[in-house]
Amino acid sequence: MKRFVYINDDSCRYSYCGNRISNTKYTLWNFLPKNLWEQFRRFMNQYFLLIACLQLWSCITPVSPATTWGPLIIIFIVSASKEAWDDYNRYLSDKKANERKIWLVKDGIHRQIKAQEIHVGDVVWLHENDEIPCDLVLIGTSDPQGICYVETAALDGETDLKTRIIPTISANLSVEQLGKVKGVVECPNPDNDIRRFDANMRLFLPIIDNEKCPLTINNTLLQSCYLRYTEWACGVAVYTGNETKSGMSRGAAEPKLTAADAIIDKLTIAIFMFQIVVVLVLGYFGNAWKYTQGLKQWYLMYPVEGEAPWYDFSIILLRFELLCSIMIPISIKVTLDLAKGVYAKFIDWDEQMFDWETNTPAHSANTAISEDLGQVEYILSDKTGTLTENKMILKRCCISGTLYGNDNGDALNDVRLVNAISSNDPDVIKFLLVMALCNTVVPIKSNDDTVSYKAQSQDEEALVNAAANLNMMLISKDSSTAEICFNGSKFRYELLDILEFTSDRKRMSVVVKEGQIGKILLLSKGADEALLPRACPGQQIQKYLEAVEMYSQLGLRTLCLGWRDLKESEYKEWSKNFQEASCSLDNREFKIAEVCHSLERDLHILGVTAVEDRLQDGVPETIKLLRNAGINVWMLTGDKQNTAIQIGLLCNLITSEPNSQLLSISGKTEEVILRSLERALLIMKNTSETKDLAFVLDGWALEIILKHSKESFTRLAMLSKTAICCRMTPLQKAQLVAILKSAGYLTLAIGDGGNDVRMIQEANIGVGISGREGLQAARAADYSIGKFKFLKRLILIHGRYSYNRTAFISQYSFYKSLLICFIQILFAFLSGLSGTSLFNSISLMAYNVFYTSLPVMTIIFDKDISETTVMQYPQILLHSQAGRLLNPTTFCGWFGCSLYHALVVFFITICAYSDEKSEMQELSMVALSGCIWLQAFVVTMDTNSFTYPQILLIWGNFVAFYMINLILSAIPSLQLYTIMFHLCSQPSYWISMALTVAVGMGPVVAFRYFKNLYQPSAINILQQIEQSNGSIQASGNLESARANLTNLLTGSRKNRDCYYHPLLSDSAESARTY
């Protein structure tokens, strides 16, 4: 579908949407119904709403409806308030953008309007540093050459300036004509592709002939970008409002379900099924007791037989359903959301993850998945800018078979190269000319006439700077010309065409015309496999292949340079085809590539450049630590295989030790590639755990494998701790992540550039590095950090602690709900199975919302072992990876504990207060007090590190319980009137509490003591080591404890599959048998 935009035509300006942007989720009128609808889409909220509605039926509810309606309303208010606040902030941001003042020009008259009043077809006039209000087709600038500079960081995260040029059709328009221009832009319907704009434009008479001019993304100014270093620019509005490319790119990311969340959902379903069984059993026996015994008891006032309603049989059943509904904790989601929000703030506030070099803090953009960081199994990392600094420096080069820089490792200071330049060696001069001209670099001249360069690629900047250091300096450049200064003399070149780099072509070229003699040249650079096969017949390229191989072995990034003369007739014919392909609105990219392919042939290869990109500080140590923690690390890069392997050796990804082996999956044919894959898989299967195996493959091999043998490759991926994948496209990086995810592994992808975004978004956890390639990866990621070395702290410290805390909070939430529910069930056997509640409505509501929710938040600050110990023994992460703290087994322990504690509380309460003098409210308060005492000791016992907030929350809440109930006992209108005063004055009450704690916690403490003594876990041993300050001489048993720890950690790694199955895939368990 096409859109026709008529410039300055009032009859068509209202055919498309206006420029009012709206990112709000709600309006004033739909907020309440829409928010309630979203809240009730969750199963748990639907469940509790049903329970709350049933409680409105007075003949079945055992307690006041407030016990459920109160917490439910509080939860809804908290969630709705957060949504309303976020949406209000979005509204304020939209309002500011919509009411921003913008200059519009029509019929030669400039007038100022609000940005939201712009319509498609209007001509917008911008000044320096203005934010671009909508998507414009550039038609004029203050620069005589029709160039302007834009900052696109807000759109794509790339910090370097981009050059935008006016279309050739409007190159000769004066300022007066720009205000009166008429024409039409033929463009596609709105889309979110910020890299592509395939359109055509025609201007109407009398300004210019009615000819068609192709438009590309380089002729546009996109919304949210800023105009820089340009006095003014004007453009035609083609996409406005939410139909701009920026607006089409907006949208809420799909929420990610963590492994812990998946387990919690399964446990919730299991408890729900258990609840249904309990309700049916109690309901059956309750009805049986009613009809055999209850009807005989006159004081129960059951209806006379025959007068009972038709639904009479379901009343007891529903009463038990309401009574047991608290088995599922109503506050668990709010509690976990609050805890996860605090986890995210811990990451934001971590000064040890602050990059002082770039002044960049760590940031958590996704507050819901912190615990997944502690369960990461595979890390897939980009290389350039992620493992390396992305600071490119030309170190070596090969020109016409001569190697420069081999002696001193610095080609720029090689005397032979300097002498060759001084003697005007023609091949060397052409080599430097290609380095200086074949690029998209923008030279910026400062007030003191010094020249600096802005480049979209660090490789291009390195080559242009190297050429400048060798006296071939690019001093100016616009849309049609470039000026070179060589040895003090200036040379002007006309830029005829640019054949842009794409990931498919892996090369770029420029067509230039020498200013003096008018010779037309094609200058090309690209990867060796993209350029060397296009060498002219008869040229010997073996020496260049050897140079590429040698530089790759040194870990250097290589590019080949070439050129050829073009006859004017050949160029004119090609230019005509190029123009036609550029004007095509269908498959434009493919057609342009075909035309470029026809020109980039018979090249004279000039030489090879070798650029160094040094490793970041701390990368080898970080990778070693992560691998010791049981995390498998893969490197995905677009570099050559040998370069990638050398970087892998330098950063401890692979080693040259005798027990290491690197398996190559490669070949020149499909058959050879598939055979090498099966051989690698066979070796992986039959190799012992002690041998460190890795495999390496390139993008072409991966393409063949995914087409013909994806299942075999998946099995190989599951067996491989390390892999080096080179010559990868952005799509292939994402495909590798998807393969590991499909096997049930929890993946983390980390990168720094726009080409890593797809991989980052595909992974369970995406981490972006705020690097020299910009912020695009960091903005698309769940977490952003300044350096790769901070990843170890993000995973081992924040991830592990978050998982441990979430495991406790979620299971404790079920424990405290099951505890009170089991007491209610036990009381049913003393109340004729009638579904009567032991606890009053106020006590139940306060128990769920206040008494038990606050103490559990102390775990947010808890650390089972210190950060130093975690870093010293990274293998402890295996416990988190395997889900050792949150699984059906651990939950059964909490379930059993809640049942045991319920029995203790109930029987001690009944034995102490079952005489006829005791009131029902006294019995209830004694049982509730026992629950509060037990939960305080449970939280205290599971707390490893005490801080003031923890002490305040646990025991302050304990004191608050008594103060609140003493106050309630002083209100005559309440059922609790005088109850707490009466109980606190009785020694039997305090003896009952002491007995409850002793009987309830005694066996639990004894069990843990003997387990830690005779069968300690690795965490127990590390805690013992910490308590002895790590001194082996401190205890005779400590050395044996250390040996035991080593055995446990080693055994965990070897026998990992015995107890671990992926939490994210039901089918992965069977897949792990390979």
Automatic annotation (TrEMBL):
Localisation: Endomembrane system; Membrane
Catalytic residues of the enzyme: D382
InterPro entries listed in its UniProt record: ATPase_P-typ_cyto_dom_N, ATPase_P-typ_P_site, ATPase_P-typ_TM_dom_sf, ATPase_P-typ_transduc_dom_A_sf, ATPase_P-type_domA, HAD-like_sf, HAD_sf, P-type_ATPase_IV
Start and end residues of each P-type ATPase C-terminal domain: 778-1017
A Gene Ontology molecular function term of the record: ATP hydrolysis activity
Domain P-type ATPase N-terminal: 5-69
Record: residues binding ATP: D382, K383, T384, E460, F501, K525, R557, T637, G638, D639, R727, K733, N755, D756
Principal location: membrane
Catalytic activity annotation: ATP + H2O + phospholipidSide 1 = ADP + phosphate + phospholipidSide 2
Record PROSITE patterns: ATPASE_E1_E2 (PS00154)
Residues annotated as binding Mg(2+): D382, T384, D752, D756
A Pfam cross-reference name: PhoLip_ATPase_N
Membrane topology: Multi-pass membrane protein
Example GO BP: phospholipid translocation
Cofactor(s) needed by this chain: Mg(2+)
E.C. number(s) listed in UniProt: 7.6.2.1
Keywords: ATP-binding, Magnesium, Membrane, Metal-binding, Nucleotide-binding, Translocase, Transmembrane, Transmembrane helix
Single GO cellular component term: plasma membrane
Positions of transmembrane segments: 47-63, 267-289, 818-847, 893-913, 925-941, 953-977, 989-1010
Listed SUPFAM superfamilies: Calcium ATPase, transduction domain A, Calcium ATPase, transmembrane domain M, HAD-like, Metal cation-transporting ATPase, ATP-binding domain N
Domain P-type ATPase A, chain residue ranges per copy: 99-161
Record family assignment: Belongs to the cation transport ATPase (P-type) (TC 3.A.3) family. Type IV subfamily.
Stated name of the protein: Phospholipid-transporting ATPase
Organism: Miscanthus lutarioriparius
Lineage: Eukaryota, Viridiplantae, Streptophyta, Embryophyta, Tracheophyta
